[in-house]
């Protein structure tokens, strides 16, 4: 069977990211044998868990036809809040209080985008700045640390293990399974796809578009709060800018997983794959001796490539027919 140029173009458009990832993996493994060591693989998965938890929530927002660029600042906010409240009211009350405040921010964004029908890019870009200011105000511009780090059970979420598996990985996996079932097996999930695929048609079909969009942002905020809890629990202290820039990495991971920026396409499982792709590529770059800031350039290149392949998959060819 002979492959034509059109066949190759369609294959690259649909599976180009996975092909590129396989090439990267083989190249990194040949360049440094430590890349395929079990401890390195486990370390990459563990370090990717926080980003992955955030990406799970953003997957719902993107499939619903919107964007969320506020997740990085919101993660900083949730981390600082739970650390600050830990010493004031104790971890038992600090954790639900932090989740409640973070969900309020998500509800506010969901109200603006869902019910007022404001552009999600503009709203979340503005909220990125606003939440960052809120975080600095809460912390007084200072970093946060737990006073008695050896006398608290708060480290359980970020440092402990169950059956030898780090808690961040277990929480990431559990959330991925639950949210995958929610998206793929429930009427709500089908409505998210319908709203993202064609919002006007979904409205005419009786689907409450505003409510669906609102709940996608609530899910995103919940996942951000969980990521903030993991970050705070792992380090028991944090800078007030800990989540700065993570919104781009989250978006890159979601797009790498195949979620369309146009809405209506994507899965939680593929988002997990996208998170791991990004994590292993960044790890491989460090192991071959490149400086950490090269990751920013590579992340940008990956986003451009993923968007290009996303558009190419829609039209069935790599190049525009009018180019």
Looking across the biggest beta sheet, what order are the strands in? 1-4
Mean pLDDT: 85
Low-pLDDT regions? none
Order of helices and strands: HHHHHEHEEHHHHEHHH
**CATH C-level class:** Mainly Alpha
Shape: globular
Q: Quickly give the structural class.
A: mainly alpha
Give the biggest sheet: 2 strands, antiparallel
Distance between the amino and carboxyl termini? 30 Å
C-alpha Rg, in Å?
Answer: 20 Å
Summed up, the domain count is: 1
Write the CATH architecture name. Orthogonal Bundle
**Strand residues, percent:** under 5%
Count every helix, treating DSSP H or I runs of 4 or more residues as helices.
Answer: 13
- Provide the CATH topology: ABC transporter involved in vitamin B12 uptake, BtuC
Strand count: 4
Task: Please explain how this structure is put together.
The model has no long low-confidence stretch (mean pLDDT 85). Strands 1-4 form a two-stranded antiparallel sheet. The chain has helices at 5-31, 38-63, 71-89, 91-115, 120-139, 156-159, 167-185, 187-197, 199-204, 209-235, 246-256, 268-287, 294-315; strands spanning 144-145, 161-162, 165-166, 237-238. Helix 2 runs antiparallel to helix 10, helix 2 crosses helix 11 (246-256) and helix 11 (246-256) crosses helix 12. It is mostly helical. The chain contains 13 helices and four strands. The longest helix has 27 residues, at 5-31. It has one domain: ABC transporter involved in vitamin B12 uptake, BtuC (Orthogonal Bundle), CATH 1.10.3470. Strand 2 (161-162) and strand 3 form a beta hairpin.
């Amino acid at each position: 069977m002979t492959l034509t140029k059109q066949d190759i173009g369609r294959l690259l458009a649909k599976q180009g990211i996975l092909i590129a990832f396989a090439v990267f993996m083989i190249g990194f493994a040949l360049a440094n044998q430590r890349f395929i060591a079990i401890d390195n693989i486990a370390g990459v998965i563990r370090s990717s868990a926080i980003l992955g938890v955030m990406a799970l929530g953003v997957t719902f927002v993107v499939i619903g036809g919107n964007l969320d660029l506020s997740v990085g600042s919101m993660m900083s906010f949730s981390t600082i809040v739970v650390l600050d409240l830990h010493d004031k009211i104790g971890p038992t009350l600090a954790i639900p209080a932090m989740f409640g405040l973070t969900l309020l921010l998500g509800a506010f964004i969901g109200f603006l985008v869902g019910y007022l029908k404001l552009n999600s890019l503009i709203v979340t870009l503005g909220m990125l700045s606003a939440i960052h200011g809120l975080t600095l105000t809460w912390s007084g511009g200072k970093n946060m640390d737990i006073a008695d780090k050896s006398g608290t059970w708060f480290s359980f979420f970020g440092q402990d293990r169950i059956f030898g598996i780090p808690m961040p990985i277990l929480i990431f996996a559990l959330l991925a399974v639950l949210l995958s079932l929610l998206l793929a097996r429930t009427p709500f999930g089908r409505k998210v796809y319908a709203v993202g695929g064609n919002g006007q048609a979904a409205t005419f079909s009786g689907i409450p578009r505003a409510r669906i969009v609102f709940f996608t942002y609530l899910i995103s905020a919940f996942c951000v709060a969980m990521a903030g809890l993991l970050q705070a629990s792992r380090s028991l202290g944090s800078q007030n800018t800990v989540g700065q820039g993570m919104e781009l990495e989250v978006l890159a991971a979601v797009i790498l997983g195949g979620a369309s920026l146009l809405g209506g396409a994507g899965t939680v499982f593929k988002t997990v794959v996208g998170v791991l792709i990004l994590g292993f590529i960044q790890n491989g770059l460090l192991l071959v001796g490149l400086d950490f800031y090269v990751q920013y350039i590579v992340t940008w290149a990956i986003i451009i490539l993923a968007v290009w392949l996303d558009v190419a998959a829609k039209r069935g060819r790599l190049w525009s027919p009018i180019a």
